[in-house]
């Protein structure tokens, strides 16, 4: 096993940093800090980022993962919502290739955080309450981020990576599959955090399709999927009757008796195309 990164924080160093900066973990912000340097090393390794890569880290906290990313030779932009943590980060990383941005990642200006002059990866231990909307917003609106390796609640990782027909398949799965593909790459035990969360975590890797060629806009595809999933147990001929008719379903190759959890993203796109064609005549 490789040695843990020299800069990273164990439980003792984390407790010391909290004391030094007069901080207390704020659970409402999902503050569960990684205190196992081996997990940090594992996240960096699984992300595949390497010397010279540009990385966005959302929620750097006290900088445990940031330190691992620095060790790997990447340029890091670290977006943190908590002013106290921003102070602690700036003190630790003032001499490293790290830009700390004090912002809410859900409303941040991504073009200034991750300028599209580069390709970017997002590597982050995400706060539980913002993980799904953040990942989906980034996929929709920040094309220069082409790979994400993020730690999320285990159930969220399963939903993001679920294939049509699986019990975890839902709206987030459709959106991820629209842009690329996702894989749950590792489980992470609760014991590696301070304080320990109540739920298990997992690492999910999401890659944009480099040959992306979908022609139907995501909003049109999403409208159909969202409407159908809002009444998940109903057949689509009923849940979608205000949006599409029998013929459109037929031409899209979707049985009117189908339920949304069995309809893959290609079929949702075909249905959006049929709806557009019907509007255009
Ligand atoms: N990366 C650190 C680690 O692994 O030890 C901390 C991860 S902790 C699970 C989540 C971090 O996200 C916290 O530092 C929290 O303050 C920050 N955070 C929560 N909501 C945020 C938001 N909307 N935008 C940016 N950071 C946020």
Explain what this protein looks like in three dimensions.
The protein has 281 residues and is α/β, with parallel strands linked by helices. The chain folds into two domains: 6-208, Vaccinia Virus protein VP39 (Rossmann fold), CATH 3.40.50.150; 218-280, rRNA adenine dimethylase, C-terminal domain (Helicase, Ruva Protein, domain 3). It is 39% helix and 19% strand. It has twelve helices and nine strands. The protein has helices spanning 11-20, 37-47, 64-71, 83-93, 110-113, 131-141, 154-161, 171-179, 218-229, 236-239, 246-251, 265-280; strands spanning 33-34, 54-58, 75-80, 98-102, 120-125, 145-153, 180-188, 193-194, 201-208. The strands form two sheets. Strands 4-3-2-5-6-9-7 form a seven-stranded mixed beta sheet, with helices on both faces. The chain has a two-stranded antiparallel sheet with strand order 1-8. α3 links the parallel β2 and β3. It is elongated and about 65 Å long. The termini are far apart. The model is unreliable at 1-6 (pLDDT under 50). The site of S-adenosylmethionine has 23 residues, from β1, α3 and β3. S-adenosylmethionine (SAM) is lined by residues 29-34, 58-61, 64-65, 79-82, 85, 104-106, 125, 127, 130.
Report the C-alpha radius of gyration, rounded: 21 Å
Distance between the termini: 63 Å
What share of residues is helical?
A: 25-40%
- Label the CATH architecture of the largest domain: 3-Layer(aba) Sandwich
Mean pLDDT: 95
Return the CATH topology of the largest domain.
Rossmann fold
Residue windows where pLDDT falls under 50 for at least 5 positions: 1-6
Sequence of strands across the biggest β-sheet: 4-3-2-5-6-9-7
**Total tally of structural domains:** 2
- Element string (H = helix, E = strand): HEHEHEHEHEHEHHEEEHHHH
Beta-strand fraction estimate? 15-25%
Structural class: alpha/beta
What is the helix tally?
Answer: 12
Shape: elongated
**What's the main sheet like?**
7 strands, mixed
> Can you tell me the CATH class of the largest domain?
Alpha Beta
The total beta strand count reads: 9
The CATH fourth-level homologous superfamily of the largest domain: Vaccinia Virus protein VP39
Bound molecules: S-adenosylmethionine
């Amino acid at each position: 096993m490789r040695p843990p990164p020299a800069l990273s924080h164990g439980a003792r160093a984390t407790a010391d940093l909290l004391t030094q900066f007069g901080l207390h973990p704020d659970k409402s912000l999902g503050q569960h800090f990684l205190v196992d340097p081996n997990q940090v090393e594992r996240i960096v390794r699984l992300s595949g980022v390497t010397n010279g890569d540009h990385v966005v880290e959302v929620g750097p906290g006290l900088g445990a993962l940031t330190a691992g990313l620095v060790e790997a030779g990447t340029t890091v932009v670290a977006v943190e919502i908590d002013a106290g943590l921003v102070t602690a980060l700036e003190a630790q990383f003032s001499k490293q290739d790290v830009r700390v941005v004090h912002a809410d990642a859900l409303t941040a200006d991504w073009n200034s955080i991750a300028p599209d002059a580069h390709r970017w990866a997002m590597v982050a231990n995400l706060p539980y309450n913002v993980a799904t909307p953040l990942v989906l917003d980034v996929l929709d609106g920040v094309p220069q981020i082409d790979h994400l390796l993020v730690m999320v609640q285990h159930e969220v990782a399963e939903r993001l990576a679920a294939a049509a027909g699986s019990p975890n398949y839902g709206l987030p799965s459709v959106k991820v599959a629209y842009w690329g593909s996702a894989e749950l790459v590792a489980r992470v035990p609760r014991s590696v955090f301070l304080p320990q969360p109540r739920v298990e975590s997992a690492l999910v890797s999401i890659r944009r399709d480099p040959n992306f060629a979908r022609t139907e806009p995501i909003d049109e595809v999403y409208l159909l999927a969202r409407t159908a999933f809002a009444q998940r147990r109903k057949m689509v001929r009923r849940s979608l009757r205000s949006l599409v008719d029998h013929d459109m379903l037929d031409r899209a190759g979707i049985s009117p008796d189908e339920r949304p959890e069995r309809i893959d993203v290609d079929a949702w796109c075909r249905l959006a195309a049929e709806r557009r064609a019907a509007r255009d005549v």
